[in-house]
Amino acid sequence: MKRAKLGDLYCMKVPNGYKIYQWAYQIPNDGSYIRVFPHLYEKIPDNLSGIVGSEHSYIIGFAAAKAYRKNLSELLGNFAVPLQYPFPQYSLTVGVGSKMCIRDNSTDRWLTEFVGGYAELPEKFRAVKALSGSVTPDWLMYLFDTDFDFSDWNRFFPRDEIDKYHKIYQTMLE
């Protein structure tokens, strides 16, 4: 059986290219979190340590080890998470519909009211690049394939778009 380790760097092939991410954090009672790096690549780049040392686009919950065991991703290597990127103090929490608020990860308490978009958050929280909770593989494939970042929050939830990736995901499992 394939063994995944914290620090593993993976790429996932999606229709528009390769997306690189790292299994960076294992949080008790909360699960596995990955650092997702910017850009879709036509081919897997050579400068992997440079990518790991760079700023991520966002952090999101995802069962990286399970995805690797099911051949949804390719292992590129194992790298320590740079000290300047500890698990964040704050994360976005999604509520009913596409409303969001800020969560303090150390206390698991909501710090803001639910708002309709990233720009509506109090200014001091607009740099938050983490989402609490996990997403499904098809949802993650959609985020990867569209090179999602938090600047366009409305692209986070389009169920009809995500459903297209469910078929790709099912094919990968065969």
Structure description:
The chain starts with 7 loop residues before the first strand and ends with a helix. The chain has four helices and nine strands. The chain is an alpha+beta fold and 174 residues long. The protein has a six-stranded mixed sheet. Strands 6-7-8 form a three-stranded antiparallel sheet, with no helix packed on it. The radius of gyration is 16 Å and the shape is globular. The protein has one domain (8-88, 129-173). The model has no long low-confidence stretch (mean pLDDT 87).
Map the helices and strands.
Layout: E1 8-14, E2 17-27, E3 31-36, H1 48-52, E4 58-61, H2 64-69, E5 74-78, E6 90-94, E7 100-104, E8 109-110, E9 130-134, H3 137-145, H4 159-173
Parallel strand pairs: 4-9
Antiparallel strand pairs: 1-2, 1-5, 2-3, 3-4, 6-7, 7-8
Helix pairs in contact: 3-4
What is the radius of gyration computed over CA atoms, rounded to a whole number of angstroms? 16 Å
State the separation between the terminal residues, measured CA to CA: 17 Å
When the domains are counted, the total is 1
What structural class should be given to the helix and strand makeup? Answer: alpha+beta
Helix and strand run: EEEHEHEEEEEHH
- Label the overall shape: globular
Give the helix proportion (percent range).
Answer: 10-25%
Proportion in β-strands: 25-35%
Unreliable spans: none
